[in-house]
Amino acid sequence: MTADHGFVLALSGGIGGAKLALGLSRVLPPGTLMVVANTGDDFEHLGLQISPDLDTLLYTLGGIDNPETGWGRRDETWTFMGALEALGGETWFKLGDGDLATHVERTRRRRAGESLSAITDDFRHRLRISSRLLPMSDDPVRTRLLTDEGWLDFQDYFVRRRCAPSVRTIVFDGAGAARPQPDFVAALADADLRMVVICPSNPLISIDPILALEGVRDALRACRAPVVAVSPIIDGRAVKGPTAKMMAELGMPVDAGSVARHYRDILDHYIIDEADLAGVGGLDAATTVTRTLMENIADREALARVVLMAGQGV
Ligand code: FO1
User: Fold this and answer.
1) How far is the CA of 256 from the centre of ligand 1 (A)?
2) Average pLDDT, the chain
3) pTM of the full structure
4) Nearest-atom index, ligand 1, CA of 202
5) What is the number of the ligand 1 atom nearest to the C-alpha of 41?
6) Which one of 159, 161, 202, 204 would you pick to mutate in the ligand 1 pocket, going by the greatest count of ligand atoms within 8 A of its CB?
7) Which atom of ligand 1 is nearest to the CA of 162?
8) 1 pLDDT higher than 50
9) What would the CATH number be for the domain defined by 3-312?
10) Domain chopping of the chain, boundaries
11) CA dist 255 to 14, 235, 252, Å?
12) What pLDDT does residue 164 have?
């Protein structure tokens, strides 16, 4: 797949999204991928400003991600966590020593008045990442969940409570006032934009915060370039994380078709796994069936090539 011209814009959050973003960055020419990251998972913890989905993308695209967990750094050490434990500090959110440097430096620069976008762009250059990486907004957006244990902040739900509570409602505090990142908005109207890729992230907590920003859904609907989404559901199950559990708790059928309908008004092409062929009849988006499970680098590149071909054909 040669990129004759133009660039590709990918929307991503969480571990699954980062895998496809890596595949796209490896099959596209350097500098022709822009990745927009969810920041609804961001939170302040131990006095540090933490942006998990940005960091998962930085580490994954920079080749220093932890291959077991998908978050944090590889070859990590845990001296800080051990010392914090001994002091009776909060250790439910694991911060490796290398990862800690990211949070400390980001917090210092944010307090000095730098934007999350500017800090992220500097970090990605230092990691020799040729793809552009943007937060969805430089304004705060915080995902919160109303559960059978009451309202929970995102990381409380996701990490501290391990997604156990039953979800009733998901809200994105600040999304109404947050301005979408300007280069993200400009990209959607750029004549050189070849396609928009919605990565196989959890639609409810990783993609919806991006779509909730003022004008984003409209801009995607009006976008001349095709919008191609990869199903995060394989054979009625989520590869990782609480996607299937959340969909069931919110009354959505847990199948690939459900996710396509969730994106219906912006979707031009849907990529599903061979195991889910039955569930997507009657969609008005074009559909491509392929192997969507990404277990290694070759899978990530192969899926990226299928996505690029699908977007080409729309
Ligand atoms: N996820 C966990 O399940 N346990 C953790 O201790 C944990 C720590 C962590 C530290 C930095 C970081 O960037 C991500 C971390 N995550 C952890 C993952 C994180 O909660 C999720 O990746 C996103 O918020 C949702 O995908």
Assistant:
1) 25
2) 96
3) 0.97
4) 26
5) 24
6) 159
7) 3
8) no
9) 3.40.50.10680
10) 3-312
11) 19, 7, 8
12) 98
Answer whether residue 314 shows pLDDT above 70: no
**Ligand 1 environment, Cβ below 6 A:** 14-15, 41, 52-53, 55-56, 71-72, 93-95, 99, 155, 158-159
Atom of ligand 1 nearest to the CA of 95: 10
Confidence of residue 262 (pLDDT cuts 50, 70, 90): very high
Mean pLDDT of 240-253: 95
**Has residue 3 got a pLDDT over 60?**
no
Please state, in angstroms and as integers, the Cα–Cα distance from residue 60 to each residue in 16, 17, 57, 85, 267, following that order.
11, 10, 5, 28, 26
pLDDT at 272: 96
